[in-house]
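REQUEST ID: PR-0412
SUBMITTED BY: lab tech R.K.
PRIORITY: routine
TASK: structure prediction, single protein chain
INPUT:
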Amino acid sequence: MFIHVPKTGGNFFTRCFLRFSDDAIITSGHQDGTDRFELNGQATKSKHQTLAEYCDLIGPAFSGYTVYAFARPPVERMISLYYSPHRWMREQEDGGFGLDARNEPIDLQEFEALVSTNHSISNLLDTQNIPARLMLNTSALHASGARVSLLNFAKLQSGLKKFGRKNGFDLSDIPAKKVNSSAVNNPVALNAGQMDHLAETVLDSHHGKDQEFFPATGLKGALDGVSRWFNLYA
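STATUS: complete
OUTPUT:
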């Protein structure tokens, strides 16, 4: 079972593995079926469905599942979510949709609302029902009996290939193109004067618990991680 945490490479994961699944891509509005789409299947009612929702839908058989998710440090993930293309698609006069790149600093009020209304990784994985501490590149047992394994977004492609080898999936034709990447090239430089405030907003929220998945803790560790990782990802 794959839990799609927003802005952790989940659309890319879907492009690699959908053919092995009973789920199907559905689209509406600005969704194009590649960078933006929804999923539907017998046990999948939405693309960002939580572990607890899967558990309820599948029932006792869920105990036999292994649940996978990619994790990304929360400050970086929330900034990436703010600039995510799906939030800036605008309908054009011809009825199509175009991207308003929004290449400007983050609006703090809008960012605070985004942080408060979006699931944390801990929420999505129902970690309150995982007695052992869940950390990057480890697995732990959920109260349902399912095993939860946390993969590293920073090593997305190599992680996917390792996942494929371990579980017998042929990924020889893994896509080369990144999916749903932000049009903003350097959000750290763009927000240089307010990075401390952005980080504190995230770490003081329910997303702060997600920082425990990673070695770097505290405000400085989170900011160092954002600067380092945004050289590779947007």
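NOTES: The radius of gyration is 18 Å.
REVIEWED BY: pending
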